[in-house]
Amino acid sequence: MVAKKDEEEELARTPLQAIILADSFTTKFRPITLERPKVLLPLVNAPMIDYTLAWLESAGVEEVFVFCCAHSKQVIDYLDKSNWFGQPNFSVTTIESHNAISAGDALRLIYEQQVIRGDFILVSGDTVSNMSLSQALKEHKERRRNDSNAVMTMVIKQSKPSPITRQSRLGTEELFMVIDPETKQLLYYEDRVNLKGYLSLDKALLTDNTSISLQNDKQDCYIDICSPEVLSLFTDNFDYQHLRRDFVKGLLVDDIMGYKIYTHEIHSSYAARIDNYRSYDTISKDIIQRWTYPLVPDVQFFGNSATKLERQGMYRAPEIKQSRLSKIGPFTVIGTGTSIGINTEISNSVVGEGCSIGANVTIEGCYIWDNVTIEDGCKLKHSIVCDGVTMNSGAALEPGVVLSFKVVVGRNFLVPAYSKVSLLQQPIKQDSDEELEYADNSSGIPEVPSISGTLDKLNEEERTELPDSQEYDVGDGGVGFIWLVSEGGQEEELRHSVAPIPVDKLVAIMQITNDEVDIPNEDGSFLPPSGELGPDSITNDSNEDAEDIRDDSIIFEREVEATFQRAVEEDVTDDHVILEVNSLRLSYNMASADCAGALFYSVMKLALDAPHDSPNELYKNVVTTVRKWKKLLKYYLPSIDEEIEVILKFEEMCLESAKEYSPLFLQVLHHLYDQDIIQEEAILDWASEKEGAEESDKVFVKQSEKFIQWLKEASEEEEED
């Protein structure tokens, strides 16, 4: 008993440690990562790894070990020159290896060095989070005290996949997990790509557990709280290479050792990992929109250069030169030392430091890194432009383009959609993208020479073996090679790009999805995509059903609002929004009235969030906003029932979430009538339904009495005629 107490006291004195696996060589970010490690790629206004380190420091971690594979020298040099070394109460140590080709190899090497002395946090160097670790650590330690086999706690977060693409907003595949709803123990883990069209569960999951919850609306944050046994398990099992595919799944099916993995779900905090270009785009937008606070552009932390937050989510660094006739739109970041020419428009984009942008340039939804030159008349849309790139006058980038370091695009040259252009020629032998979570098969090969010099530094043998078909130029005066997309790779480019998936592609995916047939169970029933299963899972409890419906309604409204907000920010067409909302409607099994109410709420909230100093200015915002989105609103108002739902939703807003609208109820209602959005029949039916209500529910009916009376008289006159 005394020995156990001493051991617990010793563990309590052990500093909280973390391991960062810096997978600096991933095929999903090629050709960029042939020249620079992924963790050093800029994310808004700081390298990725700085976000990870800043979060760990704020979360109370005291010792961090950064494991480096390919491009390890660049990572070590960066950290050596940064302010991370020598911080009080926060030490950063690098561990280098050129032989490790997987997460398993990395963890085995760390185990051999005997640097981990207790429970530790395991993350990748592309993790962005602001979550507190205290509650997750507390749960982990309590479980460990009661059960020494509880070796890992995985952090998860709700993230319902798109009903069209079956991907998360981060571009990752739909994930299926089975979790014990009482203990939060993980019982099953599989992503959609490995399911081959159907989900098969071991019957033992039902027989050995009184209740299980099958989830497909959770995101794996790739933040793991591990006991020291995790390292020894990798050492004992050399076939463990992938952290999820081998280790997690291996423990879940191992009935002999009995090791257990648990989950910790976060709700209000942020946590995500940059796994592909789409997640790079999504997380960048989340940072700009301040979901990651305090890790945001206008707050100084190690590695970033603070900028000033202005209205509509615009950030500008000091010492920029901007023409008075240029326009910088909302949710845009402009780095220090950048110049912007006359009549240039930039929106929903990040522009790095020291860039020169000419006149009459259009940049929309792009990531322009440092020291980029964009000459007059260029057009860029939803693309990534790396350091030192030059775009000659009149050049254009179609959506999804990636220009790697120091590429030169020729005058008036159009780079086709989803192209990747590099000074390095495309390797003849492509690595398969069986990506280990933190390092791929190529992470053990020697580093590719830096492109900081001339083309003569490229490997001569590689260049001579290049097929002629790959030697594409990039226009007059251009320097660079367009990499070919492998057969069948076009779909992956669409799904993982920073560019939104085109509407025609979404329609095609929906048609394919609608043609699929669900596979029934042996008894003819269908397994629900998410929900609690068990002996008492079928219930007639109307209260529980009502609660589930309410929860779905709330989540549905939030999803519609988020979809509408993205449409506003990215200037998406009405048709695209309708497609997205329809898919949400099918996913949540909602009626047309639910769509009408949710969209009306989103439109009115947009007007409310716009600058205004008086009720009159707020009303003008409403007029402008309703005029712009009139077609979208009317699409979901096919009958009087939906129109009444809109009036009821507006009543609810005036009483609860948007009381500023209360004195304007009549004016707004009258405007909706004038715009033929709400018909007189809907208004009269709404007023009629309120006749038997309590006085407190008649506030807005009384406010509208004269208008309602006028409508009644007009209606009666029409009937007489």
Automatic annotation (TrEMBL):
<dbReference type="GO" id="GO:0031369">
    <property type="term" value="F:translation initiation factor binding"/>
</dbReference>
<dbReference type="GO" id="GO:0005829">
    <property type="term" value="C:cytosol"/>
</dbReference>
<feature type="domain" description="W2">
    <location>
        <begin position="550"/>
        <end position="721"/>
    </location>
</feature>
<comment type="similarity">
    <text>Belongs to the eIF-2B gamma/epsilon subunits family.</text>
</comment>
<keyword id="KW-0963">Cytoplasm</keyword>
<keyword id="KW-0648">Protein biosynthesis</keyword>
<dbReference type="Pfam" id="PF25084">
    <property type="entry name" value="LbH_EIF2B"/>
</dbReference>
<dbReference type="InterPro" id="IPR056764">
    <property type="entry name" value="LbH_EIF2B3/5"/>
</dbReference>
<dbReference type="InterPro" id="IPR035543">
    <property type="entry name" value="eIF-2B_epsilon_N"/>
</dbReference>
<dbReference type="Pfam" id="PF00483">
    <property type="entry name" value="NTP_transferase"/>
</dbReference>
<dbReference type="InterPro" id="IPR029044">
    <property type="entry name" value="Nucleotide-diphossugar_trans"/>
</dbReference>
<feature type="region of interest" description="Disordered">
    <location>
        <begin position="434"/>
        <end position="453"/>
    </location>
</feature>
<dbReference type="InterPro" id="IPR016024">
    <property type="entry name" value="ARM-type_fold"/>
</dbReference>
<dbReference type="GO" id="GO:0003743">
    <property type="term" value="F:translation initiation factor activity"/>
</dbReference>
<dbReference type="InterPro" id="IPR011004">
    <property type="entry name" value="Trimer_LpxA-like_sf"/>
</dbReference>
<comment type="subunit">
    <text>Component of the translation initiation factor 2B (eIF2B) complex which is a heterodecamer of two sets of five different subunits: alpha, beta, gamma, delta and epsilon. Subunits alpha, beta and delta comprise a regulatory subcomplex and subunits epsilon and gamma comprise a catalytic subcomplex. Within the complex, the hexameric regulatory complex resides at the center, with the two heterodimeric catalytic subcomplexes bound on opposite sides.</text>
</comment>
<dbReference type="InterPro" id="IPR044123">
    <property type="entry name" value="W2_eIF2B_epsilon"/>
</dbReference>
<dbReference type="InterPro" id="IPR005835">
    <property type="entry name" value="NTP_transferase_dom"/>
</dbReference>
<protein>
    <recommendedName>
        <fullName>Translation initiation factor eIF2B subunit epsilon</fullName>
    </recommendedName>
</protein>
<dbReference type="InterPro" id="IPR051956">
    <property type="entry name" value="eIF2B_epsilon"/>
</dbReference>
<dbReference type="Pfam" id="PF02020">
    <property type="entry name" value="W2"/>
</dbReference>
<dbReference type="GO" id="GO:0005085">
    <property type="term" value="F:guanyl-nucleotide exchange factor activity"/>
</dbReference>
<dbReference type="InterPro" id="IPR003307">
    <property type="entry name" value="W2_domain"/>
</dbReference>
<keyword id="KW-0396">Initiation factor</keyword>
<dbReference type="GO" id="GO:0005851">
    <property type="term" value="C:eukaryotic translation initiation factor 2B complex"/>
</dbReference>
